[in-house]
């Protein structure tokens, strides 16, 4: 492995801390781009320093490590350390019913033993505890619950599970779980099966063993929707099996369900023609007509061609035109299909439809009026080049329309499509642009595309491209610190525009990185942040965000009167960490509380 990177001194401690937690817990909320360096640091970290650093790490740097994440990692040592920290009043305990669920879904019997036998904590669990264990195929966890229930350590009334246990086990092909439910060792556990969803899960996953298991127990249930799911798989054996079962199943008070006589609506998730077309399964379409005897419904039949375009498979389009040409190939149908092909960026599909049009130029002109904005927003330069090759004057007609050009460039900017901007620039089409109506800088900032901001300002340095406080406000809300840095670096040319919404939305999303950015700018004197409103402060307390509150308080952004009256809120929601913080920051003579505080604590 490569040696650890050279880092600034101020980053070494927190990174080593994060590396230590990674080594201990294997729970990492950081972005993928940081993994390599942190694991490299963890690898060279002296093993004797892990124990020395852990308490500091958990208390100062890794507040995201809770009993829930420790349970998911299967690390009992980490669970014990968190409990010891809470008992020394250095770190409040944080956990939910997800702790039991996470432990079971990872197959960690020792974690469940810790919670029930060693933790000494009050806790509860939901049906997800068993459902998730079954979904992941952990028979050992199911055995654990059955043994606890049979020994009386867990009351039968407290054992919760749903039909999702069987359905998801089938979907994930965990036959061992199905056999477990059928075994005599499960004690009071009885399988809960939703026949409709379980059968669809078996069909969708091509799980023949599960189908046999369901049918042998008369638990399989076949409906017209089941045929659609079979068609999605593209496997004719499964489709034939479902078809045969449907022919013999008696439904609706004993009436034979003649699926061969059903005419499905074109746009319907149950429609096998629609599903097969959307998936590009031409062989399934052949089977439905030739072997199954099914007939498509033609009310709005043009949508079948639309689905064929969405599949990107010209063979599906050919099938519909050859089989039912009169129903799908009118001028209006082809215009809609061509617009859809352009939006999806499929040059081959667009060219195929273009060749089917009786009046290609008119069809393409109508399609471009519908699709060109999305073509640019999706970055489909190949489509732009294709239109230029086929009918260049149509492209120039759209680009010389200032309103249309503005919409196209705004869409490209919002989605970071630099190549589209360069394409328009190469054809000198910006001469038709009304820069005063352009919203590119606001849109690029909101979506975090610094490369778009650089492109516009470098290509047109003297052009007054408009922007508003939405640029920084939304970038702040979305956590795009790199965008905020870019705007700060250009203060001499473009003054910062922002509103109180920038700070408010940051707080609600726990944007610590964004908050640090605003804090740094305030220290530099480039911004003046407003104080938070009472509603905002109380919202932070509702969610127990003590670290964020403390940071805001140090900046002088938390009004003192909101803290004085906050004991009720913190008590009501059970946030001891907030109570500790309030008491440590305010004179006791100023604190106010009512019966509501005790009411919340009692609940």
Query: How much helicity do the residues have?
Result: 55-70%
Low-confidence stretches: 1-10, 24-39, 45-53, 250-261
Summing up helix and strand content along with how strands pair, one would put the structural category as mainly alpha
| CATH architecture verdict of the domain at 222-329 | Alpha Horseshoe
Integer-rounded radius of gyration: 31 Å
The CATH topology of the domain at 222-329 is Serine Threonine Protein Phosphatase 5, Tetratricopeptide repeat
Chain-averaged pLDDT: 79
Main beta-sheet annotation: 2 strands, antiparallel
Total beta strands: 2
Number of helices: 37
Strand content: under 5%
Distance between the termini: 53 Å
Protein name: Ankyrin repeat-containing domain protein
Pfam families: Ank_4
Features:
2 strands, mainly alpha, 603 residues, two-stranded antiparallel ribbon, Serine Threonine Protein Phosphatase 5, Tetratricopeptide repeat, single chain, 37 helices, 64% helix
Draw up the topology in text.
Blueprint: H1 9-25, H2 35-44, H3 47-61, H4 67-73, H5 76-87, H6 98-105, H7 109-118, H8 128-135, H9 139-150, H10 164-171, H11 175-182, H12 195-204, H13 208-216, H14 224-233, H15 236-248, E1 250-251, E2 255-256, H16 272-278, H17 282-290, H18 302-311, H19 314-328, H20 331-344, H21 347-356, H22 360-377, H23 381-399, H24 402-414, H25 418-426, H26 440-447, H27 450-459, H28 470-477, H29 481-489, H30 500-508, H31 512-524, H32 534-542, H33 546-554, H34 560-564, H35 567-572, H36 576-585, H37 595-602
Antiparallel strand pairs: 1-2
Helix pairs in contact: 1-2, 1-3, 4-6, 6-8, 8-10, 10-12, 12-13, 12-14, 14-15, 14-16, 16-17, 16-18, 18-19, 18-20, 20-21, 20-22, 22-23, 22-24, 24-26, 26-27, 26-28, 28-30, 29-31
């Amino acid at each position: 492995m490569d040696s650890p990177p050279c880092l600034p001194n101020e980053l070494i401690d927190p990174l080593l801390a994060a590396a230590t937690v990674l080594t201990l817990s294997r729970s990492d909320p950081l972005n993928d781009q940081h993994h390599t360096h942190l694991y490299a640091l963890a690898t060279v970290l002296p093993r004797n320093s892990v124990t020395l650093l852990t308490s500091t790490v958990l208390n100062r740097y890794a507040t995201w490590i809770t009993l829930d994440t420790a349970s998911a990692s299967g690390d009992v040592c980490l669970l014990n350390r968190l409990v010891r920290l809470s008992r020394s009043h250095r770190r409040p305990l944080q956990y939910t019913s997800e702790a039991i669920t996470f432990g079971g879904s990872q197959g960690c019997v020792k974690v469940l033993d810790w919670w029930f036998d060693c933790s000494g904590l009050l806790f509860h669990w939901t049906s997800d505890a068993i459902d998730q264990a079954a979904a992941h195929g952990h028979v050992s966890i199911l055995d654990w619950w059955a043994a606890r229930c049979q020994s009386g350590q867990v009351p039968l009334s407290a054992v919760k599970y749903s039909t999702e246990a069987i359905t998801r086990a089938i979907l994930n092909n965990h036959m061992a779980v199905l056999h477990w439910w059928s075994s005599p060792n499960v004690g009071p556990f009885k399988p809960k099966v939703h026949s409709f969803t379980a059968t669809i899960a078996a069909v969708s996953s091509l799980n023949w063993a599960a189908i046999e298991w369901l049918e042998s127990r008369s638990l399989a249930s076949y409906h017209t929707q089941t045929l659609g799911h079979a068609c999605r798989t593209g496997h004719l054996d499964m489709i034939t099996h479902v078809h045969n079962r449907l022919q013999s199943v008696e439904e609706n008070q004993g009436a034979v369900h003649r699926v061969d006589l059903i005419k499905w609506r074109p746009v319907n998730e149950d429609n096998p023609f629609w599903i097969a077309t959307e998936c590009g399964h031409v062989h399934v379409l052949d089977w439905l007509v030739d072997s199954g005897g099914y007939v498509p419904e033609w009310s709005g039949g043009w949508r079948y061609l639309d689905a064929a375009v969405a599949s990107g498979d010209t063979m599906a389009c050919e099938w519909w035109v050859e089989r039912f040409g009169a129903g799908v190939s009118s001028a209006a149908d082809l215009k809609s299909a061509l617009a859809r092909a352009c939006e999806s960026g499929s040059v081959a599909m667009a060219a195929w439809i273009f060749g089917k049009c009786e009046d290609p130029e008119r069809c393409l002109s109508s399609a471009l009026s519908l699709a060109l904005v999305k073509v640019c927003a999706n970055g489909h330069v190949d489509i732009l080049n294709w239109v230029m090759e086929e009918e260049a004057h149509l492209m120039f007609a759209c680009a010389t329309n200032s309103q249309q050009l503005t919409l196209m460039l705004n869409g490209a900017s919002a989605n970071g499509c630099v190549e589209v901007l360069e394409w328009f620039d190469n054809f000198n089409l910006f001469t038709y642009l009304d820069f005063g109506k352009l919203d590119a800088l606001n849109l690029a900032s909101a979506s975090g595309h610094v490369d778009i901001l650089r492109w516009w300002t470098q290509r047109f340095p003297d052009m007054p491209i408009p922007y508003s406080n939405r640029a920084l406000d939304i970038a702040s809300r979305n956590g795009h610190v790199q965008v905020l840095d870019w705007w700060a670096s250009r203060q001499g040319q473009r003054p910062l525009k922002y509103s109180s919404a920038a700070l408010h939305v940051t707080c609600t999303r726990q944007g610590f990185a964004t908050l640090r950015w605003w804090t740094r700018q305030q220290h530099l004197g480039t911004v003046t942040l407003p104080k938070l409103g009472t509603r905002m402060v109380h919202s932070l307390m509702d969610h127990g965000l003590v670290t964020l509150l403390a940071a805001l308080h140090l900046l002088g952004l938390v009004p003192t009167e909101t803290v004085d009256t906050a004991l009720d809120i913190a008590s009501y929601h059970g946030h001891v960490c907030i109570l500790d913080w309030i008491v440590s920051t305010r004179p006791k003579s100023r604190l106010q509380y009512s019966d509501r505080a005790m009411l919340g604590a009692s609940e």
